[in-house]
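Predicting holo structure, glycinamide ribonucleotide bound.
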Amino acid sequence: MLASGSGTNLQALLATPEVRPHIALVVSDNPDAPALARARSHDVAVATVRWADHGGREPFSEALADAVESVGAKGVVLAGFMRILGPGFIDRFHGRILNVHPSLLPAFPGAHAVEHALEHGVKVTGVTVHFVDDKVDNGPIVAQAPVLVRPGDDVQTLHGRIQAEEHRIYPEIVRAFVEGRLEVAERRVVMR
Ligand code: GAR
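Done. Tokens:
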């Protein structure tokens, strides 16, 4: 699992009995990420790969991939990981990286999806779980859940309801992934 921030999605995964035993390592780019404390409290191994310790996106991506491979992980789950991964990572785990994103992709890719949804005045936004490919927030979609925007919503209130949906659907999808029931070929996703 890769996580940069508060780690509420990671928490939902740690609390899923069918998923927890498959979590070999949690890696963060941020040594102070609350996500790391959540992992430690569940006796899951943690590692930090700092952006500033590497000379740019490729060396950083290679170092992350080395950390993931060091525990023999076969798949990667991004849980609020806020760095763009370079080919040095994606090529090594192609078709084996899942991400959760707080919008209905392809609307509002990037790091400010909730703000952008509010700025555009959309009435429905939501959550997307997708495989990661070489473009940002672009890979094959596995699942989506809609969230209605309410009058008076701000980033915090809307993101809160989006996260509730993330915590509901991501564990289900990750469970299928770790149980070998989720596959992708080209843009075709099959979940058994
Ligand atoms: C989640 O809402 C996730 O969708 C978002 O960051 C949040 C992390 O929360 N990810 C992105 O915006 C990726 N582009 P968490 O650390 O509490 O799981």
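The pocket of glycinamide ribonucleotide is lined by residues 3, 5-9, 35, 79-80, 100-102, 111, 113, 163, 166 (CB under 6 Å).
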